[in-house]
Amino acid sequence: MTKNKKWIKGLFILLLCMNLTGCLPTDVVDDIFTVQAIGFEDAGDHKILGTVVAPIYAQTQSTNQGTGAQSQGTTDTFSAVSHSDKEVIEKLQTESQQQLKLGKLTVILINDTLAKKGIEKYLDYFNRDPHIGRNVFVAIVDGSTRRLLDNQYASNPDVSRYLFDLIQQNIKRNFPVTNLHEYFYDYYGKGINAFLPVLKKHGDHIEIEGIGLIKHNRYIGLLPFNKYAFIFKILNEPCDQGTYAIKLSRHNFVTVKNIGSKVKYKVRNGKSAKPEIFINVNLNGIITEASVQNNPQKYIKAVSKVLKKDLENKGKNLTEILQKRGVDPLGLGDQVRSYTRNWNEHQWYQHYPDAKINVNVKVNITQTGITE
Amino acid sequence: MNDHSLVSATRGFQPDKNQQKNILWQKRFGKGLPLIYTFHTDKERNLMMPTSTLTKPKISENSQVSPFLVFFLMTSMQFGVGILGYARYITHFAGYDAWISILLSGVSTNIILYLIYKIIERGNKNDMIAIHKELFGKWLGGLLNLIVLSYFFSYVVTILRSYIEIVQIWLFPQFPTWELSLLILLLVYTFVVGGFRTVTGMCFLSLVYGGFLLLLVYFPLEYAHFSNLLPLFNHSVPSLLRASKQMLLSFLGFELIFIYYPFIKNPDQSKKWAHAALMYTTFIYVILAIVIFIYFSERQLSHTIWSTLAMWKIVKLPIIERFEYFGLAIWLFVILPNICLGVWTVTRGLKQQFSIRQIITLPFILTAILIITCLFKNRIVIDKLNTAVSMTGTTFIYFYIPILFIYQWLFLKVKKND
Amino acid sequence: MKWPWKKRRKKLNMPEQKPQDIKELFKHMEQSDDFSHFKHQQDTMSCWISFYKTICGLESVHREILPYIFKNNVKNLMDIKANLPIEDTLVTKDLRQIQDKMLEGHMAVQMKEDDSECLLIPAPSTENRQVTNPETETSIVGPKEGFVESLDTNINLVRKRLPLPNLYLKETKVGKLSKTRVSIIYIKGIANQENVNTVWQRIKTIEFDQIVDSSTISQIITDSHHSPFPQFIDTERPDRTASAIAEGKIAILVDGSPHAVIVPTTIVDFFIAFDDYFITWHIASFIRLIRLAAVTFSVFSTPLYVAILTYHYEVIPRDLLATLISSRAVIPFPPIFEALILELTIELLREAGARLPTKVGQTIGIVGGLVIGTASVQAGLASNVLLIIVAMAGLASFTTPNYRMGNTIRLIRFPFLIAAQLWGLIGIALCFGFYLSHLLKLTSLGRPYVEPFFPPRFTDLKDTFIRIPVNKQITRPLYLRPEDPMRMNKTRSQEKRDIDE
């Protein structure tokens, strides 16, 4: 017993010595640049231009501790041209003062011309690397990613932060849920196509242009945000926020706030050449902004009616566009699969353009705010 | 004369009260129908079962554990590295119906466990080493024991090597295999020298720590697609069965009761806990599988090697993002009982077989594990090791144990009739 | 294996003087100047009186003993004995006994100087500290008595709380030189006899020259000598001692020590302040949970800081990342050195505060905490985030009610720190594993140390982190294997009354 213990102790000492001489490689937070946004764009000649943004945090000012002010960090932007994304990152390392580390990546941007050629090969690296999280936003940029990233914006000097918050707050409202995980869910999913937000730089601001449709890993078109984002969201997933403005008459507008909507799919004749899909949306809303009215009961009824009609029309429009384009970001195929035994993906895509899609919206306006 | 025939029919056990009454009755009124039909309780039936001539093993009470701890010994032994990636393997065959396969595997393990308990009870509550020796003689039995022990040994190696692999991929690609292996094995040493009680303590606490990780299934539910599970029963029975065969590696580990059975206080009471443990494991596997199924799409899952870990990536707590890093560190306590109990079992088995003291074999076993883990260099080889151990385990559980059960029955019957 | 530098020492023999007769004994004693040995001459008789002036109460000698000896009708030792209003007097010829008793404060009376028979009269001085407030285990509500350095006073304090005939006391003398009185107290019929025997046997077999304090005893009879964790709790509160005895534990009291050692104990006992029993159960449970959180925080916070900042930057949320990086930007050291420096500073402050008189100690705390902390952050030697963490960890470690356990918690975080630096989060997990294996193997008087948790005993969990109400605490802790496990009559105490009855 004691002999064994001595043996163990000896080993311990040996181990400690070995480790104190050769530690594991460290990533001390202030000795690395944490890349928070990365953008790829087409540089012509089968090359891509990669741009990364790493915030540089200023040190805490020890002199003005009384105020507790922490000077706003700036960002550092690096760009390099190369053949593949991995090579770009390697090239960027040669420019950087500190090692660039991708572990805190929050936004991946892909330029639209590049996206039209195929997205997956740029994202595969991020799917494979264990250091990348899944709450990462992927977006398509209308225009140059470099110009978008290498810029100071009024709302936040850190562009990656701005981008992340922009997309996140919109997801909470009108934009359908998207991130790296959801992208790959859709990308690998059967009977479902991915979609990504499309961003555009507008001077001092960045704007979400709409929903970018992806077919077979290529970017094929855009659904404008104002027109389709809300209907897309309530058709795609249950949501409890988001606002929608409708026109009652020529000068009479009303804004309805969604306080909880649910969507249910029903499928008939899933295997036939003309599958029938019923999308039933149950929407609870409150009126937040309205012009003066006399009879609230009647008014609510009228608004509900108009809203129902409007949303149903929009839904119809949306599905028609999607069918025409042959993309299925709503995952209708997936819904059909879940209702159909021995469902066949290939067959479904042949039937999809002819599928009959009915959108039913049930509107329930619960209150009109604190005034009537 | 009458007495004699009755007694001879019930040779080997004491005639119970009813039978004594019958004997009296027959003495008085001659041969005929017995007065009272005996409905045997389980206990009596156990008595009537042919039992071996082995003597009951004696273990000091200080190293024995309460029967309900069998629950923890079994579950903690089953949760290992398998649970981090099992979903992918089973969907390969049965798609998203695979949770049914998990249930099937769970049911079948319960049956096997019943057989194991029966074998042990017939062997007069001895461990497998003694039973083998009784059934197959000194040499053949010894050989079989060595095979079984080397299976347990390779099981430990698989678990350890897989864990190290995950750590190397996820946390420290530069972590030398030998170093991490040495560290973990030193830890295992400190546990195993503490004896069976300490190892059981590890098992118990590991389930407590590991149980906390189960709460994390809440986070992926935000991205749940419940329609993934539909339509039910979209796969044929053979494919479901193949998936449940795949599932077995995750269920392995409960057969170790063959060795540690004598260390359980009032082992008869442990039965219900053992079955409860298997049901609990099944339940957890099913719940986890369902969460994984609704979080990943099917093809996405087939590209994800460690689905449970990948799922933790979405966990976001106010002060911790990316929970998988913590999860992996905590996971050490989930695999530790596997290794500790496995190593203990091997040393205990060697002690029973060759009467070498455990304290002497233990360093050698650990060194052997250390060397062997260092020999497996890359993912492909490790995957092969996993498959091999899984195959061996399946064979052991589903072929060997039933055969042993029948053979023992025949053996004891023949012996009795002689 | 023999180490070359560990040469076997020659046995040091004390110059043992065994006096052959009583004359020699007194001669030997007279070499000490405080020994008085004189002849008392009277008409009827003469006698020799001898005692140590310093350990006999001179006042009682003068007032209560000498007058009776000087009485006229006294003729021999028996007369003196009969006349004295003092019990426990003794007439003996045993030299050993005479020597021992005289060293305890007896005075010896002989008829003639070389007479081997002498009368021993107890007259020990009772110089003693007053019973005062406990120093380290203060409480806001509840009794304010603390043990003192006298064994008899201490036993008195315990016994008056448990006026029972079967409160048994066993006394022995331990220590070759100090001959310290050590007694164990337990209740026959509640305390497990096996435990009593074990303690008694361990105390009897102590081989040591000097027992200074009860902690010496607890260090010698402890189960594992290499464990950083204290295995026996010591308390200076008689109420806590009494309630432990009533639970079936055994108290060891040592003369000259204001601490009772309670055996056996579990790890939970060290996180229980006796205050907890004076307040309602919800508040007590809340405070205990806070204490648990504090200990966890105290042990793990700095190692986690080191591990995460050194290896796992991914787990830091991005908002926190900005704070951390900007606070660390100018620090020239890696996180481990930064953490070690600050931890050691805190340890220094603690130690300096403990060694200095109370008033100066407070100043040191303020000076150290404020000046050094602020200055080191301003000088860029330590990051302010870590300063907060370390200070909070220090604060948290003070919530441990037991001083010894507090020391242990101070110590055990350093291996965690080193492991965190070497292997990140995996290192912390490994280090935790080593502690776990140690704790699982540890015993206190042969009873498992981490008892209600492992081996899991659910009835004993009622007084751990959650303390359920007193009237629901029906059983005594079962790990003690008490001979009478019930604290109250269950049926009577749990009687259910109907509404309005």
TrEMBL record, chain A:
Subcellular location: Membrane
Principal localisation: membrane
The Spore germination GerAC-like C-terminal domain, residue ranges: 210-369
Domain Spore germination protein N-terminal: 29-200
Keyword entries, A-Z: Germination, Lipoprotein, Membrane, Palmitate, Signal
Membrane topology: Lipid-anchor
InterPro entries: GerAC_N (IPR057336), Spore_GerAC-like (IPR008844), Spore_GerAC-like_C (IPR046953), Spore_GerAC_C_sf (IPR038501)
Signal sequence, start to end: 1-22
Family from the record: Belongs to the GerABKC lipoprotein family.
NCBIfam families documented for this protein: spore_ger_x_C
Name assigned to this protein: Spore germination protein
Organism the protein comes from: Scopulibacillus daqui
UniProtKB/TrEMBL annotation, chain B:
Localization per record: Membrane
Segments crossing the lipid bilayer: 65-86, 98-117, 138-160, 180-200, 207-226, 246-264, 276-296, 325-347, 359-382, 388-412
Chief site of localization: membrane
Domain of life from the UniProt record: Bacteria
Topology class, membrane: Multi-pass membrane protein
A Pfam match: Spore_permease
InterPro entries according to UniProt: Spore_GerAB
Annotated keywords: Germination, Membrane, Transmembrane, Transmembrane helix, Transport
UniProt entry tagged with the keyword Ribosomal protein: no
Family affiliation: Belongs to the amino acid-polyamine-organocation (APC) superfamily. Spore germination protein (SGP) (TC 2.A.3.9) family.
NCBIfam families named in the record: 2A0309
Protein name (database record): Spore germination protein (Amino acid permease)
Source organism of this protein record: Scopulibacillus daqui
Taxonomic lineage of the native organism: Bacteria, Bacillati, Bacillota, Bacilli, Bacillales
Automatic annotation (TrEMBL), chain C:
Protein's name according to its UniProt entry: GerA spore germination protein
Transmembrane segments: 289-308, 363-396, 416-437
Family classification: Belongs to the GerABKA family.
Keyword Oxidoreductase: no
Alphabetical list of Pfam families matching this protein: GerA
Key word DNA-binding present: no
Keywords: Membrane, Transmembrane, Transmembrane helix
InterPro entries xref list: Spore_Ger, UPF0353/GerABKA_families
